[in-house]
C-alpha cells in the first residue's frame, strides 16, 4: 500500500489505468478528530495534535474485497455554505464526524446533515452516501451523546452510523472507510443503465428433435417453421324428411 498527501487545490485528476478511484470528505466541527481519523487510516498511527485550519487531501492505494482501489480522503477545515457545496460536488461520499464527548459537535452534525439534504435538492448536487460517525468513544466516562441519539439521527437522514476511536484499534477505523467505499459502489451500481434484452421476432416453436437425427437435419428442422396441422374433414350427414318417416343417406 502507498499513500500521499497533497493540498486540495493540487489534487490530480483521474488515476491512470483501470484502478477505480473513490473520493470521501470528512465534515464536522473543529476538534472532533477528522484529521486524527484520516491519518490513522492512512498511516495506522495516531497523532493527537493538528492545525485545525488546514485543508488537506490524502491518497491511498488499498485493497477492498480483493480489489485494488485508490481512495482520496479530504480532511476539511471550512464550514461555510460555499465550501460545503464544493465538498459535495467533489465527493463520492461524505462522513459527518462528531465527538461523543461534545453535544455541541453533535448539534453541528445535525445541522450539516440538514444542509446536505437541502443542497442536494436546491443545487442539483448528486446524491451520495452519507455516514454519521461518532469519534472518541475511548472517552466513555466523558460521554455526552448516547449511541441511541446517534442511531436516531442517522435513521432520520437515512445514513449509516458508526462509533470509533482514532486513538483505538486501527481495524475499527479501517472498517468505517472500507464500508464507505462499499456504499459508494452500491450507489453506483444502482444508477448503472440496464443492458437491453433483445428477442428475435423470427423465433419459432418446434417439436422435439429425435436424438438420431443428423446435425444437418437438426439445423433444418430446428430453423424450419412447423407446418400447420390439418384436421380431417368430418362426414356430413344429410337429412330428408318425408310424409312417412325419414331416411338417412
UniProtKB/TrEMBL annotation:
SUPFAM superfamilies given in the database record: P-loop containing nucleoside triphosphate hydrolases
Pfam name, any one: Ras
Record-linked InterPro entries: P-loop_NTPase, Ras-related_GTPase, Small_GTP-bd, Small_GTPase
Catalytic activity: GTP + H2O = GDP + phosphate + H(+)
GO MF, any single term: GTP binding
Key words, A-Z: Hydrolase
PROSITE patterns: RAB (PS51419), RAS (PS51421)
Disordered: annotated segments: 208-229
E.C. numbers: 3.6.5.2
Family from the record: Belongs to the small GTPase superfamily. Ras family.
Name under which the protein is recorded: small monomeric GTPase
Organismal lineage: Eukaryota, Metazoa, Echinodermata, Eleutherozoa, Echinozoa
Amino acid at each position: 500500500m502507498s499513500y500521499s498527501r497533497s493540498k486540495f487545490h493540487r489534487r490530480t485528476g483521474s488515476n491512470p489505468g483501470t484502478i477505480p478511484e473513490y473520493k470521501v470528505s470528512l465534515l464536522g466541527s473543529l476538534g472532533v478528530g477528522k484529521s486524527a481519523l484520516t491519518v490513522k487510516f492512512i498511516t495506522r498511527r495516531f497523532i493527537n495534535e493538528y492545525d485545525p485550519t488546514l485543508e488537506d487531501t490524502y491518497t491511498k492505494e488499498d485493497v477492498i474485497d480483493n480489489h485494488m482501489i485508490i481512495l482520496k480522503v479530504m480532511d476539511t477545515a471550512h464550514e461555510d455554505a460555499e465550501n460545503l457545496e464544493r465538498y459535495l460536488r467533489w465527493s463520492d461520499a461524505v462522513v459527518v464526524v462528531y465527538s461523543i464527548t461534545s453535544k455541541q459537535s453533535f448539534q453541528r452534525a445535525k445541522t450539516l446533515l440538514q444542509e446536505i439534504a437541502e443542497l442536494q435538492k436546491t443545487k442539483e448536487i448528486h446524491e451520495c452516501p452519507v455516514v454519521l460517525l461518532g469519534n472518541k468513544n475511548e472517552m466513555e466516562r466523558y460521554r455526552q451523546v448516547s449511541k441511541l441519539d446517534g442511531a436516531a439521527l442517522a435513521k432520520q437522514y437515512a445514513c449509516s452510523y458508526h462509533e470509533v476511536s482514532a486513538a483505538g484499534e486501527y481495524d475499527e477505523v479501517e472498517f468505517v472507510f472500507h464500508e464507505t467505499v462499499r456504499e459508494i459502489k452500491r450507489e453506483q451500481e444502482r444508477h448503472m443503465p440496464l443492458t437491453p434484452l433483445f428477442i428475435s421476432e423470427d423465433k419459432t416453436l418446434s417439436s422435439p428433435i429425435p436424438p438420431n437425427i443428423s446435425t444437418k437435419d437438426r439445423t433444418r428442422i430446428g430453423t424450419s417453421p412447423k407446418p400447420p396441422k390439418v384436421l380431417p374433414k368430418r362426414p356430413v350427414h344429410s337429412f330428408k324428411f318425408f310424409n312417412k318417416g325419414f331416411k338417412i343417406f
